[in-house]
């Protein structure tokens, strides 16, 4: 019984290599500074997790990157729609992290998020 949730949650997950490639492909639509930063980050995270053997950790990792992919695909779709329209709406990529999710981060994750935030601000300037 305990394996059913694990199995059902893996049915919709993309294989790691396909997910990795899709993310890098969608990054082509990002502004150049964000694309460069995003590509470097994705490559390092996938490299860092390539030898993980814990199935729950692997599923969580792939699931979160798949959520990211869907978010970026939606934001890219919105950006292409807004550039085709006559409004001068500013395109924004990314989203705010909910406080309940942020509270679950450990110190290392908070530090990594802070570094990523600073790098993003530098890349955009």
TrEMBL record:
<comment type="function">
    <text>Plays an essential role in the assembly of succinate dehydrogenase (SDH), an enzyme complex (also referred to as respiratory complex II) that is a component of both the tricarboxylic acid (TCA) cycle and the mitochondrial electron transport chain, and which couples the oxidation of succinate to fumarate with the reduction of ubiquinone (coenzyme Q) to ubiquinol. Promotes maturation of the iron-sulfur protein subunit of the SDH catalytic dimer, protecting it from the deleterious effects of oxidants. May act together with SDHAF1.</text>
</comment>
<comment type="subunit">
    <text>Interacts with the iron-sulfur protein subunit within the SDH catalytic dimer.</text>
</comment>
<comment type="similarity">
    <text>Belongs to the complex I LYR family. SDHAF3 subfamily.</text>
</comment>
<protein>
    <recommendedName>
        <fullName>Succinate dehydrogenase assembly factor 3</fullName>
    </recommendedName>
</protein>
<dbReference type="GO" id="GO:0034553">
    <property type="term" value="P:mitochondrial respiratory chain complex II assembly"/>
</dbReference>
<dbReference type="Pfam" id="PF13233">
    <property type="entry name" value="Complex1_LYR_2"/>
</dbReference>
<dbReference type="GO" id="GO:0005759">
    <property type="term" value="C:mitochondrial matrix"/>
</dbReference>
<keyword id="KW-0143">Chaperone</keyword>
<keyword id="KW-0496">Mitochondrion</keyword>
<dbReference type="GO" id="GO:0005758">
    <property type="term" value="C:mitochondrial intermembrane space"/>
</dbReference>
<dbReference type="InterPro" id="IPR008381">
    <property type="entry name" value="SDHAF3/Sdh7"/>
</dbReference>
<dbReference type="GO" id="GO:0006105">
    <property type="term" value="P:succinate metabolic process"/>
</dbReference>
<keyword id="KW-0809">Transit peptide</keyword>
């Amino acid at each position: 019984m305990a394996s059913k949730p694990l199995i059902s949650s893996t049915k919709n997950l993309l294989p790691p290599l396909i997910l990795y490639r899709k993310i890098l492909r969608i990054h082509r639509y990002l502004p150049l500074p964000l694309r460069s930063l995003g590509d470097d980050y994705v490559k390092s995270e996938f490299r860092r997790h390539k030898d993980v053997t814990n199935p729950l950790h692997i599923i969580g990792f792939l699931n979160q990157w798949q959520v990211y992919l869907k978010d970026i695909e939606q934001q890219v779709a919105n950006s292409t729609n807004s550039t085709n329209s006559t409004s001068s709406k500013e395109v924004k990529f990314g989203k705010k992290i909910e406080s309940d999710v942020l509270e679950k981060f450990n110190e290392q994750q908070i530090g990594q998020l802070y570094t990523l935030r600073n790098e993003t601000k530098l890349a955009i300037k």
